[in-house]
Amino acid sequence: MKKIFLIILILFFYNFVFGVNIRVRIANARMIKCSASKATFISGNFKKKLYGKFIITTSSSGVSLYYQDKKKNYGSFILTSDKIKIAGKNYKGKFKVMNINKRVNIILTLDMEEYVKGVIPGEMPLDWPKEALKAQAVLARTYGYYSILKKRTYYDVGSTSNYQVFVGNNKRNENVCKVVDGTSGIVATYHDYPIEVFYHSTCGGRTETSEDLWGTGFPYLQSVKCDFCGSSPYYLWTYTMPIEDLVEIVNKLGGNFDCITDISCPKKTKSERAKYFIFSDNESEISFNVTGKDLRMTIGPNKLKSLLITRIELDGFNIIFTGHGFGHGVGLCQYGAKRLAEMGYNYINILNYYFRDIKLTKLKD
Ligand SMILES: [Zn+2]
After folding, report:
1. 351 Cα–ligand 1 center, Å
2. What tens digit of pLDDT does each residue of 74-108 get?
3. Residue 287 sits in the same domain as residue 159
4. What is the pLDDT of residue 1?
5. Does residue 62 have a pLDDT over 60?
6. Does residue 169 share a domain with residue 88?
7. Measured distance CA(84)–CA(34) in Å, rounded
8. Which pLDDT score is estimated for 363?
9. Deepest in the core among 16, 64, 245, 256, taking most CB within 10 A?
10. 3-state class (DSSP) for residue 227
11. Total number of domains constituting the chain
């Protein structure tokens, strides 16, 4: 515990004196198109200006720059620009360009608060109530600090939904800046360490524990009742799929069916989400278990929107799932946060509702 407290103290001190930078991997591909009205290229002591379009690809010894019909190879290089388009998105700042695992990686280093301003538009609609957006901002910042403490070699976070979506300067507006500035430096901690952040669109009535879903429990991630996400378009949904497609999916997961004639869900988690399904075929008398998580991920998480499934019907050649909510259900329910904010609760109330026994700690003045 002492060591953890020390980390917070160091973070606080470091923040106070220097401000904290985070390294965001904004592109990861074999070839990346860029354009800038003006960018500075730096490799060792060599500097030059780039104007207009250029392309970066991998090379055997690092990366290649294609600019004005010339190709040059480098181990790695730095770019700086006030306005640069990289793989179709606008950014500004300082970028390291390097080859990681035979792919061009572009890593933007920026101030933590600037990072949070680039995350909010990717993770929550900007016309939502201010206190819901502030709750999201605290979680985005907490995720950032937590990622820095993981000490990854080349970058701290990626910019895709595998991390949190970072959109750079693309959708930033005055509202985003106000929301982020209004929570400046605040992170959610448990026992003086940034919490592991989880959130989802709509819980559908009750959030899930991380233990039930992933097998790892966190004391602050309990299952809480949520009566606040009923207005979400994903509160109640049905998903219909042909049984032959389901057979294909179950066989992909290790089954051996020609046909499926019955599905049951004998075990559920505390929040009533499906732990696993049993598929069977009366004729061949085969039955086979698939975990809820595996089935959802294989069908597609945007199709089978959650595991809070209340009804499964076999209807002719189709199977119809009826369920509540969208997402894994762990941590903050975003539509619930929206409703709580509309009811007059502030971001502190909202975060303390979905994350138990956490503290909000200000790391920066
Ligand atoms: Zn909810």
Report:
1. 13
2. 999 999 999 999 999 999 999 999 999 999 999 99
3. no
4. 44
5. yes
6. no
7. 7
8. 84
9. 64
10. coil
11. 3
Q: Which residues surround ligand 1, an ion (CB under 5 A)?
A: 203, 226, 229, 333, 336
**Residue in 133, 150, 125 with CA at minimum distance from that of residue 22:** 150
Same domain, 55 and 203: no
pLDDT of residue 284: 83
Same domain, 356 and 285: no
The alpha carbon of 343 and the centre of ligand 1 are apart by a number of angstroms equal to: 14
β-bridge partners, 291: 276
pTM of the model: 0.88
| Residue 206 Cα to ligand 1 middle (Å) | 6
Query: Mean per-residue pLDDT for 213-235?
Result: 93
Distance 291 CA to ligand 1 centre (A): 23
Report the mean per-residue pLDDT for the chain. Answer: 92
Average pLDDT for 310-316: 92
Query: Is residue 222, in this structure, part of any structural domain at all?
Result: yes
Q: Same domain, yes or no, for 349 and 221?
A: yes
Q: Which residues contact 6 (CB under 8 A, 6 or more apart)?
A: none
Q: Residue 211 C-alpha to ligand 1 middle, in angstroms?
A: 18
- Quote the domain boundaries for residue 264: 236-324
Crossing angle for the helix pair 292-299 and 243-252, to the nearest 10 degrees: 120
- In this structure, the answer to whether residues 97 and 191 fall within a common structural domain is no
